[in-house]
Amino acid sequence: MIPAPLTSFCDGCALKICSVCGLVQDRLREMGLREGACVEVVQNSEDLIVRLDGCRIGLRRDVAHNILAVPAST
């Protein structure tokens, strides 16, 4: 499957992160949003909320658009 931005997945989707780009990529990786990490989309609305290791992380849409992922089942 071709990786897509986090913003393209619906609530409840379990995902595996493939790449992290953009100006804040170092900060995102420090927070655990890095290649190979598994996340769940909690809410995809004006902002995007993901669950990572039991923590909820809120992301602006422009930031979330620079995180590419595939469904975790692939």
Can you walk me through this structure?
The chain has 74 residues and is mostly beta strands. Helices cover 14% and strands 42% of the residues. The protein has two helices and six strands. The protein has helices at residues 25-30, 61-64, and strands at residues 4-5, 14-20, 38-44, 48-52, 55-59, 67-71. Strands 1-6-2-3-4-5 form a six-stranded antiparallel sheet. It is globular and about 25 Å long. The mean pLDDT is 95.
Number of helices: 2
Shape: globular
The helicity comes to 10-25%
Report the uncertain regions: none
> What average pLDDT do the residues reach?
95
The sequence of SSEs as H and E is EEHEEEHE
Rg (CA only): 11 Å
- Classify the beta-strand content into a percent band: 35-45%
Largest β-sheet summary: 6 strands, antiparallel
The computed structural class is: mainly beta
How many beta-strand elements?
6
Key phrases:
74 residues; mainly beta; 42% strand
Helix-strand blueprint:
Elements: E1 4-5, E2 14-20, H1 25-30, E3 38-44, E4 48-52, E5 55-59, H2 61-64, E6 67-71
Antiparallel strand pairs: 1-6, 2-3, 2-6, 3-4, 4-5
